[in-house]
Design brief:
Length: 956
């Protein structure tokens, strides 16, 4: 209906004899209208003036109509779009269909609520959110009033809708704070002398005070300008522990350059420590003497901090000194309790032997030369322990990126576009195109899947760019390296949030996304680059000008450092570090940050590396391999990265990297029942859950199985396209009952709020992996639960892990209702059968497709009869149909515990699978711990085979 027709006179016409059968199709189609005022369209001849006048008149008319309608409360003459696709205009004198009206109202209501909800999320106003409840920001309002207020609020929010543009939260975005902090609330930060714009951003984020690790590292990093080696539990705020000093340092450098009219390139952030070595020996001896005294650590630290702030590079000598004093005093007590500082001797980098290594023995292998945790794992560990349906046979290690941008193996998920998180630049704008996979570009890259564990990606044709000092006029101040793409994106977003009012730009350079856009961002000269090593090295190799300033960066941070430097994982890291450390003076003037939750953790040796070994030449050697000490591990890091006398802050000594708020538990069961237990947990204890597997194959299998079980799982692994990876993470973040099934690619660093459970579907290969996986829950002082699923064949790995984590007793068992589990096991049998049939069908289709393709290529005509696969398909289809029906019927029925009497079957049509109520898993575990149920178990477990195994293991 054209606009013109709106202004004409309409009359309703009665619909006699309208067939009853059609009524439901025309639901809400309340009448017809006939145009009674015809005229010729003279639009073409009309003058512009006339047109304008007519328009105005029409507008006025519409306004009038609207106001009169609202006064008389008649049915609006607005067009209504029906479900069947018709657009109708309702009459004034006929009652509209109630159903449609209701439907429409509901729709509108939903829309409004949605808008209101979104706006509430954005503005943190209105109804109490989950967050509010958690923070205790709930308000008791009488019910009646509340509904009125609600309406009002909805109206208000809808009114402001045009003004406030809805911003979709992207992966890694920090949620805005619900509490409004005043400058007085932020006084704890003041002692670190952070610049005002940074404090302003922290206030907005609701970060009232620094976390423990921030409290311990910021003074030395900001005032002392020292290198920091930080180890703190997962989710303890390590990102800002290096992020804030970097932002603060950049602002200081910029300010100084502006004040003195200097070129930033020529201002070292700190006095090269090389010169410090030339200091009179007396000073060092003074330290040594003090060292012997009881309070040695703190004094040394204090002296060094003072010394650095006296170096003339601080923005204000006195104030810095003052600040340092305050901070050291302020954090005194905390440090006494937690701070563990190592003496880190600075050694020349060309000295390859590790300290304490008896290098005189030819066949001596030191563990530090084989730091790779997964190299260290038994070769049998690399296989998918289930051995079932591992389609691609990719029982591979899958916990880092950019060691090769692998695969185009998309297995699930729709293809709808997401503009969510391709954003790679500091300004927060992102296009979908950013997420374009670069499968073609990857053609000559080695696929991780094909390589298997222990193989190393060979980086060909990359020449080390010459160490020419490049000045583009837009200095690159800081480089932050991470092992995974998602972590890089997240760190960027955290920094962007903290740098919101500083004008500092942050670029994310990661694989799997369009390099073109990343280059464009780099051309704008961001001060900070957060990157994974692969893509970064690729762009450096291509001569990207902004990155040619790499060797003059003032700050270098390496997150998850222990993972980053593991042998064979990041081949590009070695040349990168060489490049960064090429100029000795610049290296010494650079401030370095090295962080991880497991920085000082050293795991047990795998048996295959111990004992006798027969060499190629038939010689038997008895290998002496010593476990590296934490100090040796730290020394190695210091040497590799080129740090100078770093301050080592390790606050993981109590819980070895896991958060204090984490509740640990375990389920021991047969391998074939693991799926049933997992389904039980997901359904009985719904909540945001991450399920970790040891291989890509396991992730794929579980994702398929749980899709059949209608759990809507979200897979995540390194051979998925980057776009899908981010989309799945965002979906998971947005779904309070989301189930993410992931490899260790999601184990480190990811900060998704309110993850309630972490389930280790398989015992992780190293204790480090256990710590990082478990650390996806119980973050930022919240509580969380981790469940380790273990079958008897994994007892050895479990015992090894417990030993590394210094666990003196077994991880307590998670209580499972066996009555409920029994019917689930039956359900799982059917689901697995269906899964197997689907796999068979896929394989048959693939084989069929292959035969046909081959025939076409060879110009051979094949009869359908010669393709027996099709017949197989027909029979599979039949079976599939039947199985699907069987599973659907099982799933549609609620699960009753075995022995349920059925005397009082429920009348409600609740679709929840469990008839028993859903329970909070953490609470269930806590209750079990308190009720003494687990004490009994402890007594029983004295003779448990697991402990026996552990003893055997110790003897080895
Ligand atoms: N001072 C602070 N006050 C409150 N929350 C904070 C503070 N600093 C950081 N956080 C929040 O704590 C959460 C965890 O921080 P972050 O991701 O830096 O942890 P992490 O120690 O790096 O964890 P992981 O070891 O898993 O990488 C984040 O959501 C972050 O926003």
């Amino acid at each position: 209906m054209s606009k013109k027709l709106n202004n004409m006179k309409w009359e309703s016409v009665a619909l006699d004899g309208f067939p009853a059968s059609m009524t439901d199709k025309f639901q809400g189609f309340v009448g017809l209208e006939e145009c009674t005022d015809y005229s010729f369209d003279k639009e073409g001849k009309r003058s512009k003036k006339n047109k304008k006048q007519e328009k105005l008149a029409a507008k006025r008319e519409r306004k009038k109509r609207k106001s009169s309608e609202s006064e008389t409360k008649e049915v609006p003459s607005k067009k209504v779009k029906l479900d069947n696709g018709f657009i109708v205009e309702s009459c004034n004198n006929t009652e509209p269909s109630l159903a449609n009206n209701k439907q429409k109202r509901n729709k509108n209501k939903k829309k409004k609520n949605k808008n209101a909800k979104n706006l509430n999320n954005d503005n943190n106003t209105g109804e109490t959110s989950d967050d509010d409840k958690e923070n205790g920001n709930t308000e008791e309002v009488p019910k009646k009033k509340k509904s009125k207020n609600k309406k009002k609020k909805v109206k208000e929010t809808v009114g402001t809708e045009k003004v406030v543009k809805k911003v979709k939260q992207r992966l890694g975005d920090l949620p805005k704070s619900t509490s409004e902090l005043t400058p007085e609330d932020m006084l704890t930060w003041a002692e670190f002398k952070l610049q005002e714009p940074i404090i302003k951003a922290l206030t907005e984020l609701g970060f009232k005070q620094p976390t423990k690790i921030q409290q311990l590292t910021l003074p030395a990093a900001i005032h002392g300008r020292r290198d920091i080696l930080g180890a703190a539990e997962t989710g303890s705020g390590k990102t800002l522990a290096f992020g804030l000093p970097i932002l603060c340092g950049i602002l200081k450098l910029k300010e100084k350059a502006e004040l003195k009219g200097l070129d930033v390139y020529d201002i070292p952030y700190r006095k090269p420590a090389l010169k410090k070595k030339e200091e009179p020996k007396e000073k060092k001896q003074k330290y040594k003497r003090k060292d012997r005294k009881e309070n040695k650590k703190k004094i040394v630290q204090e002296e060094k901090v003072k010394e650095s702030s006296e170096d003339g590079y601080s923005s204000g000598k006195e104030s810095d000194e003052e600040g340092t004093k305050n901070v050291t005093e302020g954090s005194k007590n905390v440090e006494e309790e937690y701070l563990e500082e190592y003496d880190v001797p600075v050694r020349k980098r060309d000295n390859s032997a590790d300290e304490g290594n008896d290098s005189d023995e030819e066949n001596y292998i030191h563990l530090s030369d084989m730091l790779d945790s997964d190299d260290l794992a038994d070769s049998s560990d690399d296989e998918d322990t289930e051995g079932a349906d591992d389609e691609d046979g990719s029982g591979i290690d899958d916990d880092d990126d950019d060691g090769g941008e692998s695969g185009d193996d998309v297995e699930s998920g729709d293809e709808e576009d997401s503009d969510a998180s391709g954003d790679i630049d500091g300004d927060g704008s992102g296009d979908d195109e950013d997420l374009e996979e670069e499968e073609n570009e990857d053609a000559d890259e080695v696929n991780e899947d094909e390589q298997g564990v222990g193989c190393v990606k060979v980086v060909d044709n990359i020449e080390m760019p010459g160490h020419v000092s490049v000045k583009t006029g837009k200095p690159l101040y800081a480089l932050i390296l991470t092992p995974t793409r998602e972590l890089a994106i997240q760190i960027s977003r955290h920094l962007i949030a903290a740098a919101k009012y500083t004008g500092i730009k942050v670029a994310t350079i990661v694989g799997g996304m369009a390099a073109v856009k990343q280059e464009r961002v780099l051309r704008s000269g961001p001060e900070i680059v957060v990157a994974t090593p692969g893509r970064l090295w690729e762009l450096i190799g291509q001569g990207q000008p902004h990155l040619q300033q790499l060797d003059s960066v003032k700050f270098l941070a390496i997150d998850e450092t222990d993972r980053m430097i593991e042998r064979g994982h990041f081949e590009e890291l070695t040349p990168l570090l060489e490049r960064l450390n090429a100029d000795e003076e610049r290296r010494a003037a650079r401030q370095n940050f090295v962080f991880s939750a497991t920085l000082t953790m050293v795991h047990d040796l795998p048996t295959h590396m111990k004992g006798k070994k027969v060499t190629k030449h038939g010689k038997i050697i008895n290998r002496k391999i010593e476990k590296m000490t934490p100090q040796q591990k730290v020394n190695r890091l210091v040497r590799m990265i080129g740090m100078t006398e770093p301050k080592v802050v390790d606050i993981t000594t109590q819980n070895l990297g896991t958060a204090e708020t984490l509740t640990e538990s375990r389920i021991t069961c047969a391998l074939e029942h693991k799926d049933a237990y997992l389904y039980y947990i997901v359904k009985r204890h719904p909540g945001r859950t991450i399920v970790f597997c040891n291989s890509i194959g396991s992730v794929k299998r579980l994702a398929q199985l749980f899709t059949l079980l209608k759990c809507r799982p979200l897979p995540l692994h390194a051979s998925m396209p980057q776009r899908q990876r981010i989309k799945n993470l965002e979906r998971f973040r947005d779904d309070p009952h989301g189930v993410l099934i992931a490899t260790d690619v999601a184990a480190r660093g990811l900060d998704i709020p309110h993850v309630e459970h972490v389930i280790h579907y398989q015992v992780p290969r190293t204790a480090e992996n256990y710590v990082h996986r478990s650390g996806r829950t119980a973050r930022a002082s919240r509580e969380g639960l981790t469940i380790l699923m273990m079958d008897p064949s994994e007892a050895y790995l479990y015992a090894k892990m417990c030993r590394t984590l210094n666990k003196t007793s077994e991880v307590p068992t998670f209580p499972v209702d066996s009555q409920v589990l029994a019917p689930i096991k039956e359900l799982m049998v059917v689901a697995r059968e269906l899964d197997a049939l689907e796999l068979k069908k896929r394989r048959a289709a693939q084989a069929h497709g292959w035969k046909e393709r081959a025939a076409r290529e060879m110009d051979i005509i094949i009869d359908d009869d010669d393709l027996p696969v099709k017949q197989v398909n027909a029979s599979i289809d039949k079976e599939l149909k039947a199985k699907r029906r069987q599973l659907d019927s099982l799933l549609s029925r609620p699960i009753y515990p075995r022995g349920f009497s059925f005397k009082y079957p429920t009348l409600n049509n609740d679709t929840t699978v469990f008839q028993g109520s859903e329970e909070n898993a953490l609470q269930v575990m806590k209750n079990a711990l308190e009720s003494g149920q687990l004490k009994k178990e402890k007594r029983k477990s004295k003779n448990a085979p697991l402990l026996q195994l552990q003893k055997k293991f110790k003897k080895k």
